[in-house]
# Entry
Amino acid sequence: MISLLLAADALAKLGATVGGGLAVIGAGIGIGRIGGQAMDAMARQPEKMGGLQSSMILAAALVEGATFLALVISILALFV
Amino acid sequence: MKQLRSIFLVALLLCCSLPGFSQEAEKEEGGVNLKEILFGHVQDAYQWHVTDIGGHPLIIHLPMIFYSQQSGFHVYCSSQFAHEPDENLLREGPDGFYIKGAEDEKGQIVEKVGAELQPVCFDISITKTVLVLFINAILLVCCILGAARWCKKHKVDDPAPRGFTGLIHMFVMAVYNDMIKPSLGEEAPKYAPYLMTCFFFIFLTNLMGVVPFPPGGGNLTGNITCTMFLALCTFLIVNVTGTKAYWKEIFWGDVPWWLKVPLPLMPFIEFFGIFTKPIALMIRLFANMLAGHVIAISLSCIIFIMFALGGTMGTVLGSAMTPVSVFLSIFMMLLEVLVCYIQAMVFTMLSAVFISMSHVKEHHA
# Structure
């Protein structure tokens, strides 16, 4: 019984950490695409560099916000 | 075949996770408790525990100010409370007051009334985070007001200032022209004071967080209360100065009628959007800075965890990990400086965008 409870605890930790990893994979894909496409656009139209840079960071920040929500939830599941 | 492999992988994962808890129990005795070190650093505390020198703690003691229902206002120094908690996880202090929790934890202050413990209300102690806030505010005022005085004394067509004043001028103009003006346009001068205060406060606080010793090293922007206040300010500005068209778009937007008449779907979503935007601002800054602190500590703790394994293996692994850890720490610190700037910029830029979004003009179709 005790070992079962311990295993459940370990499984809960596993779930939280794997969930955090999955969220980061999503953010990686999202931010990578944003960065890559912005690079493409900058190479095509270097005169639009400034505007592209700021909107790129804005979009990346929005993706990151969603990821951090997931990460905070997994940290809460781990420690609290 | 593919399915077999995935089943095998899952089984392997489970097996890897199972020995985890048996090792953990040993680690508690082994000496390095990563969780305690981590939380001791990133959480608030009633005193500033800088480091230990030869087993002797080096602590900056801070004032504790609180109000108790029984005996009114009290002011103590945190040195009057015991550093080590007793077996009930209470740190004993004068006049029947106790702090709940471990040595560097900011637990509740409780008062012993008869046999039971009663929490005090209204705790306005100058904690570690508050002290860091004061230090950073003073630093910021010194940096900015010094440069601002130059502008008062000189005319517009004077030659540009040199040295530190010149640096601040350049920085202020760059923030104004690149982050605030593009999104706010002609309304920029009205909101620039607030947005630039935000930017420079967040930037300086983030940078001071990277400095590893006092007066830096506090985790202020990684404290959710601080970021919540900043986000609350943005929330208030956005919604108080919002135009009529902004509120109309929220409650009666230009969407097909069936999205809003029997069931107010779009108004409901838009209404929640009002709150999720500042909450995202709050969480983003908080989580980014917290993650920076956690990474810095984890990387240096890796050495001690390896040595705590004990035996030849621990020594070999620890020695091997030391250069790796130092190299990675330097790399992460440099990255962290970049993150400090980017996060301050993102907060300012998003605030500017939210403000400009609430200033929509009535468009005639």
Remarks:
- Strands of chain B lie at 47-53, 56-61, 63-68, 72-77, 90-92, 97-100, 109-113, 116-119, 121-123.
- Residues 47-126 of chain B form one domain.
